[in-house]
Amino acid sequence: TSMERVFSGIQPTGTLHLGNYFGALKKWVELQETCGSVLYSIVDLHSITLPQDPKILHRNILEVTACLLACGINPQKSILFQQSKVSQHAELAWVLGCMTTMARLGHLPQFKEKSASVKDIPLGIFVYPVLQSADILVYKATKVPVGEDQLQHLQLAQHLAKLFNSKYGKLFPHPKALINDDCTARLRSLRDPTKKMSKSEPDPKSRIDLTDSEEVILEKVKKAVTDFESAVTWDPKNRPGVSNLIAIHCGMTGKTPEEIVQDAQGLDTGKYKLVVADAINKVLQPIREETMRLLKDPPFLEQILEDGSMKASSIAEDTWESVRKLVGL
Ligand code: ADP
Ligand code: NA
Protein backbone atom coordinates (compact mmCIF):
# COMPACT_ATOMS: atom_id res chain seq x y z
CA THR A 1 0.00 0.00 0.00
CA SER A 2 2.92 2.34 0.56
CA MET A 3 3.82 4.67 -2.29
CA GLU A 4 6.64 3.77 -4.64
CA ARG A 5 9.29 6.42 -5.06
CA VAL A 6 12.25 6.31 -7.45
CA PHE A 7 15.58 7.99 -6.70
CA SER A 8 18.85 7.85 -8.59
CA GLY A 9 21.87 10.08 -9.08
CA ILE A 10 24.63 10.77 -11.54
CA GLN A 11 27.94 12.55 -11.04
CA PRO A 12 28.78 15.66 -13.05
CA THR A 13 32.40 14.54 -13.45
CA GLY A 14 32.35 14.61 -17.24
CA THR A 15 30.25 13.97 -20.28
CA LEU A 16 27.89 11.02 -19.95
CA HIS A 17 28.88 7.87 -21.79
CA LEU A 18 27.26 4.73 -23.16
CA GLY A 19 27.81 2.87 -19.86
CA ASN A 20 25.74 5.49 -18.02
CA TYR A 21 23.12 5.38 -20.75
CA PHE A 22 22.52 1.62 -20.70
CA GLY A 23 23.37 1.06 -17.02
CA ALA A 24 21.07 3.81 -15.79
CA LEU A 25 19.54 6.50 -18.02
CA LYS A 26 17.47 4.28 -20.27
CA LYS A 27 15.75 2.86 -17.20
CA TRP A 28 15.36 6.36 -15.71
CA VAL A 29 13.37 7.48 -18.75
CA GLU A 30 11.13 4.38 -18.59
CA LEU A 31 10.45 4.83 -14.87
CA GLN A 32 9.22 8.41 -15.19
CA GLU A 33 6.39 7.02 -17.35
CA THR A 34 5.34 4.27 -14.92
CA CYS A 35 6.04 5.67 -11.46
CA GLY A 36 4.31 8.73 -10.01
CA SER A 37 7.15 10.02 -7.85
CA VAL A 38 10.56 10.14 -9.46
CA LEU A 39 13.69 12.08 -8.45
CA TYR A 40 16.95 12.28 -10.38
CA SER A 41 19.88 14.12 -8.89
CA ILE A 42 23.05 15.56 -10.30
CA VAL A 43 25.21 14.57 -7.38
CA ASP A 44 27.78 17.35 -7.38
CA LEU A 45 28.88 16.71 -3.77
CA HIS A 46 30.12 13.31 -4.91
CA SER A 47 32.17 14.75 -7.72
CA ILE A 48 34.40 16.79 -5.38
CA THR A 49 35.70 13.64 -3.68
CA LEU A 50 38.50 13.69 -6.27
CA PRO A 51 40.47 16.82 -7.26
CA GLN A 52 38.45 19.09 -9.57
CA ASP A 53 38.44 22.51 -11.20
CA PRO A 54 35.53 24.78 -10.10
CA LYS A 55 34.97 26.25 -13.57
CA ILE A 56 34.89 22.85 -15.21
CA LEU A 57 32.65 21.42 -12.49
CA HIS A 58 29.98 24.05 -13.01
CA ARG A 59 30.13 23.60 -16.77
CA ASN A 60 29.77 19.83 -16.27
CA ILE A 61 26.68 20.29 -14.11
CA LEU A 62 24.98 22.12 -16.98
CA GLU A 63 26.27 19.62 -19.52
CA VAL A 64 24.89 16.66 -17.61
CA THR A 65 21.57 18.49 -17.20
CA ALA A 66 21.39 19.11 -20.97
CA CYS A 67 22.32 15.54 -21.72
CA LEU A 68 19.69 14.11 -19.35
CA LEU A 69 17.01 16.26 -20.98
CA ALA A 70 18.24 15.20 -24.43
CA CYS A 71 17.98 11.54 -23.39
CA GLY A 72 14.32 12.05 -22.52
CA ILE A 73 14.17 13.07 -18.86
CA ASN A 74 11.10 15.30 -18.68
CA PRO A 75 11.05 17.85 -15.82
CA GLN A 76 7.24 17.70 -15.81
CA LYS A 77 7.42 14.01 -14.91
CA SER A 78 10.67 13.76 -12.96
CA ILE A 79 12.15 16.03 -10.32
CA LEU A 80 15.56 16.78 -11.84
CA PHE A 81 17.77 18.62 -9.36
CA GLN A 82 21.21 19.48 -8.06
CA GLN A 83 22.21 17.65 -4.87
CA SER A 84 24.12 20.50 -3.18
CA LYS A 85 21.03 22.74 -3.37
CA VAL A 86 19.26 20.44 -0.90
CA SER A 87 21.20 20.70 2.36
CA GLN A 88 19.45 17.72 3.99
CA HIS A 89 21.59 15.25 1.98
CA ALA A 90 24.69 16.33 3.89
CA GLU A 91 22.83 16.60 7.21
CA LEU A 92 21.36 13.11 7.01
CA ALA A 93 24.77 11.79 5.88
CA TRP A 94 26.21 12.97 9.19
CA VAL A 95 23.58 11.09 11.20
CA LEU A 96 24.05 7.94 9.12
CA GLY A 97 27.84 8.29 9.31
CA CYS A 98 27.57 8.14 13.09
CA MET A 99 25.94 4.73 12.67
CA THR A 100 28.47 3.31 10.17
CA THR A 101 31.70 1.51 11.05
CA MET A 102 35.07 2.15 9.42
CA ALA A 103 35.40 -1.59 8.81
CA ARG A 104 32.22 -1.72 6.74
CA LEU A 105 33.29 1.19 4.54
CA GLY A 106 36.82 -0.12 4.12
CA HIS A 107 35.49 -3.38 2.67
CA LEU A 108 33.58 -1.76 -0.19
CA PRO A 109 35.18 -2.73 -3.52
CA GLN A 110 34.87 0.78 -5.00
CA PHE A 111 36.87 2.19 -2.09
CA LYS A 112 39.62 -0.33 -2.71
CA GLU A 113 39.64 0.50 -6.43
CA LYS A 114 39.48 4.28 -6.11
CA SER A 115 41.96 4.59 -3.25
CA ALA A 116 44.50 2.33 -4.96
CA SER A 117 45.46 5.16 -7.32
CA VAL A 118 45.68 7.89 -4.63
CA LYS A 119 48.57 8.35 -2.21
CA ASP A 120 46.87 10.42 0.50
CA ILE A 121 43.29 9.20 0.56
CA PRO A 122 40.77 12.01 1.11
CA LEU A 123 38.10 11.28 3.73
CA GLY A 124 35.43 11.94 1.07
CA ILE A 125 36.46 8.86 -0.94
CA PHE A 126 36.00 6.78 2.18
CA VAL A 127 32.63 8.17 3.31
CA TYR A 128 30.86 8.95 0.04
CA PRO A 129 28.85 5.70 0.18
CA VAL A 130 27.26 7.08 3.37
CA LEU A 131 26.30 10.23 1.46
CA GLN A 132 24.82 7.98 -1.24
CA SER A 133 22.73 6.28 1.42
CA ALA A 134 21.51 9.67 2.60
CA ASP A 135 20.71 10.66 -1.02
CA ILE A 136 18.35 7.70 -1.23
CA LEU A 137 16.88 7.71 2.29
CA VAL A 138 16.21 11.45 2.51
CA TYR A 139 13.47 10.83 -0.10
CA LYS A 140 12.38 7.51 1.46
CA ALA A 141 12.99 6.01 -1.97
CA THR A 142 11.74 2.47 -2.60
CA LYS A 143 13.31 1.89 -6.03
CA VAL A 144 16.84 2.82 -7.02
CA PRO A 145 17.78 2.19 -10.65
CA VAL A 146 21.60 1.88 -10.78
CA GLY A 147 24.34 0.09 -12.67
CA GLU A 148 25.64 -3.21 -11.38
CA ASP A 149 28.75 -1.50 -10.00
CA GLN A 150 26.58 0.20 -7.35
CA LEU A 151 25.06 -2.91 -5.80
CA GLN A 152 27.27 -3.01 -2.68
CA HIS A 153 26.58 0.65 -2.03
CA LEU A 154 22.88 0.04 -2.19
CA GLN A 155 23.29 -2.76 0.32
CA LEU A 156 24.84 -0.21 2.66
CA ALA A 157 21.76 2.02 2.26
CA GLN A 158 19.52 -0.98 3.00
CA HIS A 159 21.56 -1.82 6.09
CA LEU A 160 21.49 1.78 7.38
CA ALA A 161 17.72 2.07 6.80
CA LYS A 162 17.14 -1.05 8.87
CA LEU A 163 19.58 -0.03 11.57
CA PHE A 164 18.03 3.43 11.88
CA ASN A 165 14.52 1.97 12.05
CA SER A 166 15.44 -0.48 14.80
CA LYS A 167 17.46 2.04 16.81
CA TYR A 168 15.22 5.10 16.56
CA GLY A 169 11.82 4.03 15.20
CA LYS A 170 10.41 3.06 11.84
CA LEU A 171 11.00 5.78 9.26
CA PHE A 172 12.71 4.45 6.14
CA PRO A 173 11.23 1.96 3.67
CA HIS A 174 13.50 -0.68 2.14
CA PRO A 175 15.27 0.81 -0.92
CA LYS A 176 15.32 -1.84 -3.63
CA ALA A 177 17.97 -1.86 -6.38
CA LEU A 178 16.68 -2.00 -9.94
CA ILE A 179 19.47 -3.47 -12.01
CA ASN A 180 19.42 -4.00 -15.70
CA ASP A 181 19.74 -7.75 -16.35
CA ASP A 182 20.62 -7.76 -20.05
CA CYS A 183 24.10 -7.82 -21.58
CA THR A 184 24.41 -4.02 -21.39
CA ALA A 185 24.32 -4.01 -17.56
CA ARG A 186 28.05 -3.35 -17.33
CA LEU A 187 29.73 -1.91 -20.38
CA ARG A 188 33.49 -2.12 -20.39
CA SER A 189 36.34 0.21 -21.17
CA LEU A 190 37.26 0.21 -24.87
CA ARG A 191 40.94 0.41 -23.91
CA ASP A 192 40.92 -2.26 -21.22
CA PRO A 193 37.86 -4.51 -21.43
CA THR A 194 38.59 -6.01 -18.02
CA LYS A 195 37.56 -2.64 -16.49
CA LYS A 196 34.19 -0.88 -16.61
CA MET A 197 33.59 2.04 -18.92
CA SER A 198 33.84 5.08 -16.64
CA LYS A 199 33.95 8.86 -16.68
CA SER A 200 36.81 8.69 -14.23
CA GLU A 201 39.18 6.75 -16.50
CA PRO A 202 41.73 9.31 -17.78
CA ASP A 203 41.89 8.05 -21.40
CA PRO A 204 38.89 9.53 -23.28
CA LYS A 205 39.24 6.79 -25.92
CA SER A 206 38.14 4.29 -23.27
CA ARG A 207 34.51 5.37 -23.57
CA ILE A 208 31.95 6.63 -26.08
CA ASP A 209 30.44 9.89 -24.86
CA LEU A 210 26.84 10.63 -25.73
CA THR A 211 27.98 13.82 -27.47
CA ASP A 212 30.78 12.29 -29.56
CA SER A 213 30.67 13.18 -33.27
CA GLU A 214 30.32 10.52 -35.96
CA GLU A 215 34.07 10.75 -36.72
CA VAL A 216 35.08 10.42 -33.07
CA ILE A 217 32.77 7.43 -32.57
CA LEU A 218 34.31 5.72 -35.60
CA GLU A 219 37.85 6.41 -34.41
CA LYS A 220 37.21 5.14 -30.87
CA VAL A 221 35.47 1.97 -32.05
CA LYS A 222 38.24 1.26 -34.58
CA LYS A 223 40.83 1.58 -31.79
CA ALA A 224 38.83 -0.56 -29.33
CA VAL A 225 41.01 -3.33 -27.94
CA THR A 226 39.90 -6.79 -29.13
CA ASP A 227 42.06 -9.91 -29.47
CA PHE A 228 43.94 -11.96 -32.07
CA GLU A 229 40.93 -13.92 -33.26
CA SER A 230 39.17 -12.35 -36.24
CA ALA A 231 35.70 -13.98 -36.07
CA VAL A 232 32.84 -12.21 -34.28
CA THR A 233 31.74 -14.49 -31.42
CA TRP A 234 29.95 -13.91 -28.11
CA ASP A 235 32.17 -15.00 -25.24
CA PRO A 236 32.25 -12.33 -22.50
CA LYS A 237 34.60 -14.36 -20.31
CA ASN A 238 37.33 -15.24 -22.78
CA ARG A 239 36.77 -12.48 -25.38
CA PRO A 240 35.73 -9.42 -23.32
CA GLY A 241 36.76 -6.91 -26.03
CA VAL A 242 34.67 -8.15 -28.95
CA SER A 243 31.84 -9.17 -26.58
CA ASN A 244 31.73 -5.61 -25.25
CA LEU A 245 31.25 -4.34 -28.81
CA ILE A 246 28.46 -6.89 -29.30
CA ALA A 247 26.84 -5.76 -26.02
CA ILE A 248 26.95 -2.13 -27.17
CA HIS A 249 25.51 -3.18 -30.53
CA CYS A 250 22.68 -5.03 -28.71
CA GLY A 251 21.90 -1.88 -26.76
CA MET A 252 21.71 0.13 -29.97
CA THR A 253 19.51 -2.26 -31.89
CA GLY A 254 17.51 -4.12 -29.22
CA LYS A 255 18.83 -7.42 -30.66
CA THR A 256 20.23 -10.32 -28.63
CA PRO A 257 23.93 -11.28 -28.79
CA GLU A 258 22.96 -14.41 -30.76
CA GLU A 259 21.12 -12.36 -33.39
CA ILE A 260 24.05 -9.94 -33.67
CA VAL A 261 26.56 -12.76 -34.10
CA GLN A 262 24.32 -14.35 -36.74
CA ASP A 263 24.12 -11.06 -38.67
CA ALA A 264 27.89 -10.57 -38.43
CA GLN A 265 28.78 -13.93 -39.93
CA GLY A 266 31.49 -13.54 -42.56
CA LEU A 267 32.74 -10.22 -41.13
CA ASP A 268 36.09 -10.01 -39.36
CA THR A 269 36.30 -7.83 -36.23
CA GLY A 270 37.80 -4.96 -38.25
CA LYS A 271 34.80 -4.81 -40.61
CA TYR A 272 32.38 -5.51 -37.76
CA LYS A 273 33.65 -2.41 -35.94
CA LEU A 274 32.40 -0.25 -38.82
CA VAL A 275 28.91 -1.73 -38.43
CA VAL A 276 28.95 -1.08 -34.67
CA ALA A 277 30.15 2.51 -35.09
CA ASP A 278 27.34 3.17 -37.54
CA ALA A 279 24.70 1.71 -35.19
CA ILE A 280 26.02 3.85 -32.31
CA ASN A 281 25.92 6.99 -34.41
CA LYS A 282 22.31 6.39 -35.46
CA VAL A 283 21.18 6.35 -31.81
CA LEU A 284 23.45 9.13 -30.56
CA GLN A 285 22.93 11.65 -33.35
CA PRO A 286 19.60 13.07 -32.07
CA ILE A 287 20.85 13.04 -28.45
CA ARG A 288 24.03 14.87 -29.48
CA GLU A 289 22.15 17.50 -31.48
CA GLU A 290 19.61 18.16 -28.72
CA THR A 291 22.35 18.41 -26.06
CA MET A 292 24.22 20.98 -28.17
CA ARG A 293 21.04 22.97 -28.71
CA LEU A 294 20.23 23.04 -24.97
CA LEU A 295 23.77 24.00 -24.02
CA LYS A 296 23.36 27.27 -25.88
CA ASP A 297 20.92 28.38 -23.16
CA PRO A 298 22.60 28.05 -19.72
CA PRO A 299 19.96 30.18 -17.89
CA PHE A 300 17.26 27.74 -19.03
CA LEU A 301 19.25 24.81 -17.63
CA GLU A 302 19.93 26.68 -14.36
CA GLN A 303 16.22 27.33 -14.01
CA ILE A 304 15.34 23.65 -14.49
CA LEU A 305 17.76 22.75 -11.67
CA GLU A 306 16.46 25.54 -9.44
CA ASP A 307 12.81 24.44 -9.87
CA GLY A 308 13.70 20.79 -9.33
CA SER A 309 15.72 21.57 -6.22
CA MET A 310 12.78 23.46 -4.66
CA LYS A 311 10.52 20.43 -5.17
CA ALA A 312 13.15 18.02 -3.84
CA SER A 313 13.75 20.23 -0.79
CA SER A 314 10.16 20.08 0.33
CA ILE A 315 10.33 16.25 0.53
CA ALA A 316 13.80 16.24 2.13
CA GLU A 317 12.79 18.80 4.78
CA ASP A 318 9.94 16.55 5.95
CA THR A 319 12.21 13.53 6.32
CA TRP A 320 14.87 15.56 8.11
CA GLU A 321 12.31 16.89 10.62
CA SER A 322 11.29 13.28 11.42
CA VAL A 323 14.94 12.24 11.75
CA ARG A 324 15.63 15.08 14.20
CA LYS A 325 12.66 14.16 16.35
CA LEU A 326 13.49 10.44 16.40
CA VAL A 327 17.19 11.00 17.12
CA GLY A 328 16.40 13.61 19.77
CA LEU A 329 18.21 16.50 18.07
P1 ADP B 1 30.96 6.89 -13.66
O1 ADP B 1 31.24 5.57 -13.01
O2 ADP B 1 31.14 6.87 -15.13
O3 ADP B 1 31.66 8.06 -13.00
P2 ADP B 1 28.58 7.52 -12.16
O4 ADP B 1 29.34 7.09 -10.96
O5 ADP B 1 28.12 8.92 -12.24
O6 ADP B 1 29.41 7.16 -13.48
O7 ADP B 1 27.35 6.55 -12.35
C1 ADP B 1 26.13 6.92 -12.90
C2 ADP B 1 25.31 5.68 -13.17
O8 ADP B 1 25.83 4.99 -14.32
C3 ADP B 1 25.34 4.68 -12.02
O9 ADP B 1 24.05 4.11 -11.86
C4 ADP B 1 26.31 3.64 -12.49
O10 ADP B 1 26.03 2.39 -11.92
C5 ADP B 1 26.07 3.64 -13.99
N1 ADP B 1 27.27 3.21 -14.71
C6 ADP B 1 28.48 3.81 -14.71
N2 ADP B 1 29.37 3.15 -15.49
C7 ADP B 1 28.70 2.09 -16.01
C8 ADP B 1 29.06 1.01 -16.91
N3 ADP B 1 30.28 0.94 -17.43
N4 ADP B 1 28.11 0.10 -17.22
C9 ADP B 1 26.87 0.20 -16.70
N5 ADP B 1 26.47 1.17 -15.86
C10 ADP B 1 27.35 2.11 -15.51
NA1 NA C 1 30.15 4.92 -10.52
From TrEMBL:
InterPro entries in the record, alphabetically? Answer: aa-tRNA-synth_I_CS, aa-tRNA-synth_Ic, Rossmann-like_a/b/a_fold, Trp-tRNA-ligase, Trp-tRNA-ligase_bac-type, Trp-tRNA_synthetase
What span is annotated as the signal peptide, if there is one?
none
Keyword list (alphabetical) reads:
Aminoacyl-tRNA synthetase, ATP-binding, Ligase, Nucleotide-binding, Protein biosynthesis
Identify the EC number(s).
Answer: 6.1.1.2
Tell me where in or outside the cell this protein is found: Mitochondrion matrix
* Gene Ontology biological-process entries: mitochondrial tryptophanyl-tRNA aminoacylation
- What does it catalyze? tRNA(Trp) + L-tryptophan + ATP = L-tryptophyl-tRNA(Trp) + AMP + diphosphate + H(+)
Q: What class of enzyme is it?
A: ligase
Q: Which GO terms describe its cellular component?
A: mitochondrial matrix
Instruction: Extract the GO molecular function terms from the UniProt entry.
Output: ATP binding; tryptophan-tRNA ligase activity
Pfam families per the record? tRNA-synt_1b
NCBIfam families, A to Z? trpS
Q: Which family does it belong to?
A: Belongs to the class-I aminoacyl-tRNA synthetase family.
Q: Which HAMAP family match?
A: Trp_tRNA_synth_B (MF_00140_B)
> What is this protein's function?
Catalyzes the attachment of tryptophan to tRNA(Trp) in a two-step reaction: tryptophan is first activated by ATP to form Trp-AMP and then transferred to the acceptor end of tRNA(Trp).
**What name does the UniProt record give this protein?**
Tryptophan--tRNA ligase, mitochondrial
Please report the organism this UniProt entry assigns to the protein.
Ladona fulva (Scarce chaser dragonfly)
